[in-house]
Hints:
By secondary structure, the chain is of the alpha/beta class. The chain has helices at 27-38, 43-68, 71-85, 103-110, 123-130, 197-210, 245-262; strands at residues 92-96, 136-144, 148-155, 158-164, 167-172, 177-180, 191-193, 218-224, 228-233, 238-240, 269-273, 281-284, 317-318. The protein folds into three domains: 38-68; 88-155, Roll (Ubiquitin-like (UB roll)); 158-318, Cell division protein FtsQ/DivIB (Rossmann fold). The strands form two sheets. Strands 6-5-4-7-8-9-10-11-12-13 form a ten-stranded mixed sheet, with helices on one face. Strands 1-3-2 form a three-stranded mixed sheet. The chain is elongated, with a radius of gyration of 44 Å. The protein starts with 26 loop residues before the first helix and ends in a 7-residue tail after the last strand. Residues 296-323 have low confidence and may be disordered.
Amino acid sequence: MTPGPRPSRAPQKRPVTRGAARPTPSIWQQANDLFWKIVPFKVETIEKALTVLTIFVIAGSVVAAAIYAGIPQAVGTEMGQMAGRAGFKVKRVDVKGLNRMDSLTVYAVALDQQSIAMPLVDLEKVRGELLQYGWIGDARISRRWPDTLVVDILERKPAAVWQNNQRLVLIDGSGVILEMVDPRAIPDLPLVIGPNANQRVAGLFRLLNMSPTLKPNFAGATWVGNRRWDIRFESGEVLALPEGEEPAANALKNFARIEGNQKLLGRGFVRFDMRDPTKFVVRLRRPVTDTPTPAPAADTATSEGATPAPAPAPAAVPSSPAEDR
């Protein structure tokens, strides 16, 4: 019997099985992993928050669509109509603070509504329409349940009569036109004359307030050339002021000081011209004689904030029909 091959005593090597190489994560995957390590919330929490947000967005869209379709307005209108049918509708209008304007006009505006049911009265619409009338400076509209509208009026105060293009109108201290004036019944108010004089009347009253001693003698003023004022006094004289609010204020203060010392008004003068700050020119009511009558000397002392009057007073000149330029 032939013996078989003897088994080898050397250790046998087993084949090594190598696993597949792990792929390198992409930059996006690395950033995603880093994000979830930093964020202190769990994925489940964020998913729930997104779900709730989505529900709110959908609900908001539905509400917006309903508003656009007018459903809430229709429901509100119907509820207001139901309140009106239950007796909550306008039956009275209580007007307060009205002295000059016709109250029937206010009643007509307040009741001019699509519905007189109390909840449906448009208070802002009533106020806006009332403010279109010159006499009404402000208005406050409120409801007094169950059936009364309260209209509280703040009327403007007339301050002057404006004459322009042969028309007379009543205006307040800011120049707002209040109503037409009958030439046969002109109120005892200052008369301002000239184009756009109503727009300048607030500045005119500021000038007069700076020289309060002249206000009792103030009769009116003319806005000349859309640039300056001629002041008229009760005694008939006219004071020509320079252009500009500050020069005019200084000239008026200066004249008030001179008037306080010399008593110029009511002494036969026709016009005082202070347009040139270095001169004080006066005109007499009658022509001068061979020896001209000197004008009153201007006091050299100056009041606070006033432009000093010229020391040499000019001679008086006779009244002339020449127009001011």
